[in-house]
Amino acid sequence: MTDVTIKRALLSVSDKSGLVELGEALVRHGVELVSTGGTAKALREAGLDVRDVSDLTGFPEMMDGRVKTLHPMVHGGLLAVRDDPEHAKAMADHGIGAIDMVVVNLYPFAQTVARGAERDEIIENIDIGGPSMVRSAAKNHAFVTIVTDPSDYAEIISALDMHDGATTMALRKRLAAKAFAATAAYDAMISSWFAYADQGALFPDAVSIPLKKASGLRYGENPHQTAALYVPAGPTVRGIGQAVQVQGKELSYNNYNDADAALELVSEFRDGPPTVVIVKHANPCGVASADTLIEAYEAALACDSVSAFGGIIAVNRPLDGKTAEAISGIFTEVVAAPDADDEAKAIFAKKKNLRLLLTGDLPDPARPGLAIKSIAGGVLMQSRDNGRISRSDLKVVTKREPTAQELDDCLFAWTVAKHVKSNAIVYAKDGSTAGVGAGQMNRMESARIAAWKAKDAAGKAGWAQPRTIGSSVASDAFFPFADGLLTAVEAGATAVIQPGGSIRDADVIATADEAGLAMVFTGMRHFRH
Which of 139, 163, 178, 345 is catalytic? Predict the structure, then answer.
C-alpha cells in the first residue's frame, strides 16, 4: 500500500485555526466531511457541506458530548484493514464505511490547568474519544491519514494537490509517529496533574514527563555527540528554553547549559538592585549588584576578566545601550536579559555571532519543581534547590557579630555560592564577587583558588590590594577542618557564612574567634554537583 485516496474525512478539533482552509481543500478534492459539534458548526458557517457523526453512527451525541465518536461505525471505519477479506466482509455486513482521514486535536487540558480552573472543569477537559480516534487511525496508517497538529495542514493540502487527493505512505508514517507522541504527551500531562497537583505526590510510583522538541542542536557537549532541545509540552515556567533569540548564530548545547546557569543565578536577584552575572563553563566567574546595570557589569567583569572572555552574561533588568556597549568590549557568546532597548539591540547587531536572548519575566528562584539527572540504568530525581536564607535565619556563632555591610556581603556571597559547583568558596565585597573557587575535591583548595584569582585580578587592574581584603566569604557546606577557614583569613576575609553542622564546629569557631572574624551559620547546605 502506497498512496491512499481520501474519500471521507472525520474532523473534530478544539483548535479551529486553519480548519476552514483544510476543509475547503478536502472538499475541492471530493472528500466527504464528517464532523462533530463546534467543528461541524465552523465548517458549515464557512459554507461547506458536513455530515454529522450522529448521522454516521445512528446515535446522537449524549452525556454532554462525552459519548459521540466511541462507536463501531467510527472505529470500524478507522481500524479495518482494507485488503483483508474478513475485514471487508465485516464492513459490508454491518454497513461500515471507510474513514480515510482523521483530523483531531485534543481537549485543551493543559490550558485549562494553566488558567487555574476548578477540578471538575479540569476533569471534563480530559479527552477520551479524541485519543481513541487518534490511536485507531495511527495504528492503521497503512490506510488512514491521521492529522493532530494544525501546523501540518499546509503540508496535507500540498500533498492532496500533488497526488490528486491522495497521501503517501511516507507522509502517513510520519504523521502516525507524531500522533502517538501527541497522545503519549497528553496522557503524561494528565498523569502528572493527578500525581503532583491533585494528590500532592512528589515522587509517584510511575513518572511520565511530557516533552516536545523545540529544536535540534548542531552537536552536544562535544562535537561527536548529538543533541536537541526539548521543552515541556504543558504549562511551564519561562526560562532559557522559552527565550526569544533576537540575533546571533544557532545556540549550542553548551550555550543553553551555561545560559541556564546564568539565568538561574541572576533570577535570585530579580527583586533586587541591577545585577549582572557572568558565567563560564556553568560556573559564575563574576557577579555584582549596583545602582546601575553598567556599574554592575564593570564590577562583575573585574572579578575575573580572563574567564569572562567567551562567557555567558545574564542581567536582571532590561538591557540599555550603555551596558550593551561595555559588554561588546570583549568576546561574549550569549547575553540573556528580560528585555533590551532599541539602542542595545542596534549595538549587538554589529556583533553577528553574539546571541541575544530575551526571556521576559525571570523565573522565581523559590518555585517548586524537580531536578532530574540520568545515570547508568536509571534516573535520579530530587526537588530543586529552592532554599533561601534571610537575616532572621542566621545564627551568629563567634564572639564578634558581623557589621551591617559584612552581613550584606555574607548573604550576597551565600546566594552566589549556591550556584557554584561544589566544593564552592565565594568571597564578596560591597555587593560583588571578589573571588570564586569552584569544583575542587577539598574546600581549602577552593578557598586558595578563589583568593589567587582575586590577587590576579587586582594585579591586572592595578589595584593596591585584592578585593578579598575586608571581604565576606561563603562556603556552600561546612568547614570540616579549620584549614579552609585559615586560608580565607590569609586572603583577608573578615566575615564568614557557612552551614555549620561539622563535628569540628567548635574548633572552627575557636579559630574564627582567634582571628577576630565574625561568623554566621545558615543551617542549610547548597551542594551543587
Answer: 139
